[in-house]
Design brief:
Blueprint lengths: L11 H35 L2 H50 L2 H7 L1 H26 L1 H16 L1 H48 L1 H6 L3 H27 L1 H25 L5 H43 L10 H14 L3 E10 L9 E9 L3 E6 L5 H6 L9 E6 L2 E2 L5 H6 L1 E4 L8 E2 H5 L8 H10 L3 H6 L7 E2 L8 H14 L4 E5 L7 H14 L4 E5 L3 H4 L4 E6 L2 E6 L1 H7 L1 H10 L2 H6 L1
Parallel strand pairs: 3-10, 3-11, 6-9, 9-10
Antiparallel strand pairs: 1-2, 1-4, 4-5, 7-8, 11-12
Helix pairs in contact: 1-2, 1-4, 1-5, 1-10, 2-4, 4-6, 4-10, 5-6, 5-10, 6-8, 6-9, 6-10, 9-10, 15-17
């Protein structure tokens, strides 16, 4: 939690004023039992209605002042807590966006979502309550004890015995419940993960008629969460009855001792009532403190989980001397070097995996070439092209762009010259124009229409009669799979990248549209180096160089005709999809 307190620095004044006004409210509250004692000992005893009304007015005045102080404290604490939560959420989101694929894969999306939402909300609530009550409650507890000593020392000893007992109960339950709340939050991650998998895979679940199995799995995860919550709730629930037993026992002792003191004339009846009121104040405040501690324990557990995400550092960082590197990159791009992309004895291994996903990969892709990448499922095709924009770092060897290791480039400069179309077509809620400008912020309408034309998307966009103002729903739900793919290709083409990566991004297109797309890209990309990843042999057949991957290794490299003669894996792929005549005629 200490690491997160820096987000309160911008709200120092509010963080001071909130507890200050709460203690002012508490100070006025401590005078109430004394005023009540005066009403009993003077007003009621002497049947002086004027005095009673005067003291009643004082009580009303104390109440109004206390309410004003309370509302002021509430305002400042809410402002500080909401500001704290906003700054923390912004920083966490920024930090997550700086993590590489490796860290996101390791931590898990479900966990990150929980910590961005539920955990930060819990921490924000804890900050709010701490600013309002953490000083107020102890202030009243010890203030009531001190005020009791001003009335009678012997009776006040009951307070001295009760307060340590209450502290043992409160803090003992805190120490036991904090680890359990961490366990509850961890199980909440699991429930969220199960929910997310089912929502994203709803079509698959129904296609295989596994609804009942998934409902059963969710019920088991949810029941486990409930058991954890009930268990920790039972422990936390002990706090109120135990504190009530101690307080009520103290009140009995107080009335017993006070009765003898009144009979002997040491104290008055009004002072006994004041002592009982002080004990009641302690009861109320300790109940508040008990609930506060439960919230704090949850907040501390959540704060630890949020801090843990901040401790996850991105394995991919910009190199030092970014400005100098950027100038070199621009010079390289402007000169148009012959070799655009080079893999030099490259090895790659995913985090936690004992076996490499890719090993011993070496090839060169020249400027203006089209490189086809084909292979069986899990052979490493997507992994290979993800290393070019440095979404992952190689484990051994090197990946070079324009003759320089990708690890030497500033990330913004490296990725600014690369257009990536991932396997899953992702569009964002907004207009078509806004989605296309993800590729280039200042792209003109003419540039966008040109990219749509190359991507074979212009026809269906024009048919919708909305032009570039066509509204796209979240994830592109109002478009077909093929339409989404063509728009994501157009989005990458808008920026006119030097390297274009199409990661199986035409899988939803028919063969005619796929062929037209490849022909249009070839005609309009000039010296752009294009990487075509595909499961279809027809998609890569016309490439200048075809890379055949098999179980993470480069099984062959060359043209279609060369590979038919030299690569068994490639022949098997071709003949499994095409007739012998179609294979030989190309």
């Amino acid at each position: 939690m200490k690491e997160l307190l820096k987000y309160l620095k911008a709200y120092r004044l509010e963080s001071i004023l909130a507890p200050l006004f709460k203690m002012l409210e508490a100070s006025f509250e401590l005078f109430v039992p004394l005023v009540m004692a005066r009403i009993i000992d003077v007003g009621i005893k002497n049947e002086d209605m004027t005095y009673i009304l005067q003291m009643g007015g004082v009580l009303v005045l104390l109440g109004v002042i206390g309410l004003t102080c309370s509302l002021t404290a509430q305002y400042f604490s809410a402002k500080a807590a909401v500001g704290f939560g906003t700054a923390l959420r912004n920083d966490l989101f920024r930090h997550i966006n700086r993590l590489s694929y490796r860290e996101i894969d390791t931590v898990g999306t479900a966990t990150l979502i929980t910590r961005m939402t539920s955990d930060i909300n819990q921490v924000q609530s804890g900050v709010n309550l701490v600013l309002r009550l953490f000083l107020r409650s102890p202030f009243i507890v010890f203030g009531a004890m001190i005020m009791a000593f001003t009335i009678d020392v012997k009776a006040a000893l009951v307070f001295v015995a009760a307060i340590p007992l209450l502290s043992v109960v409160v803090f003992g339950i805190l120490l036991v419940s904090m680890p359990l709340y961490k366990k509850v939050q961890k199980q909440l991650d699991q429930v969220l993960l199960t929910t997310r998998e089912n929502l994203q895979g709803a079509r698959v679940v129904r296609a295989f008629n596994r609804q009942e199995d998934e409902i059963r799995r969710f019920r088991e995860e949810n029941d486990l969460l409930v058991r954890f919550q009930v268990f920790v709730g039972k422990i936390s629930a002990l706090m109120n009855p135990l504190t009530f037993v101690i307080i009520n026992g103290s009140v009995i002792a107080l009335v017993w001792i006070g009765g003898w003191q009144v009979e002997t004339g040491v104290i008055t009846q009004g002072e006994v009532v004041a002592l009982v009121n002080y004990m009641s104040q302690i009861l109320v405040e300790l109940v508040k403190l008990a609930n506060l501690i439960i919230t704090i324990s949850k907040s501390l557990a959540c704060a630890g989980r949020v801090s843990a995400v901040f401790h996850v550092t991105g394995s991919i960082q910009d190199p030092e001397g970014g400005a100098a590197s950027e100038q070199k990159a621009e010079a390289a791009g402007g000169n148009g070097p012959v070799c655009r992309v080079e893999f030099d004895h490259m090895d790659f291994c995913y985090a936690g995996s004992p076996e490499p996903a890719l090993s011993g990969i070496s090839f060169r892709a020249m400027a203006g070439q089209t490189i086809g990448i084909i292979g069986g499922t899990g052979s490493g095709k997507s992994t290979l092209i993800n290393l070019i924009p440095r979404f992952y770092d190689v484990s051994g060897g090197a990946v070079r762009v324009d003759g320089r290791d990708v690890r030497e480039y500033p990330l913004g400069d490296l990725r600014g010259g690369i257009g990536v179309v991932p396997q899953k077509a992702v569009l964002f809620k907004g207009t078509l124009r806004e989605n296309m400008q993800w590729g280039k912020k200042d792209a003109s309408d003419e540039e966008i229409w040109q990219a749509l034309t190359v991507a074979q998307a212009r026809e269906f966009v024009e048919e919708k009669n909305q032009g570039l103002d066509m509204e796209i729903q979240q994830g592109g739900r109002n478009l077909s799979g093929g339409q989404r793919q063509r728009l994501t290709i157009a989005r990458a083409l808008v920026r006119r990248p030097r390297i274009l990566i199409l990661d199986d991004s035409a899988s939803a297109l028919d063969f005619a549209t796929d062929a037209a797309l490849r022909e249009a890209i070839k005609e309009n990309t000039k010296d752009m180096t294009v990487f075509l990843v595909s499961q279809r042999a027809t998609t890569v057949q016309g490439a200048d160089q075809i890379l055949v991957l098999d179980d993470g290794k480069l099984a062959g490299a060359g043209t279609h005709k060369e590979l038919l003669d030299t690569c068994q894996v490639y022949r098997e792929i071709c003949f499994s999809q095409l007739s012998e005549k179609e294979v030989r005629e190309h």
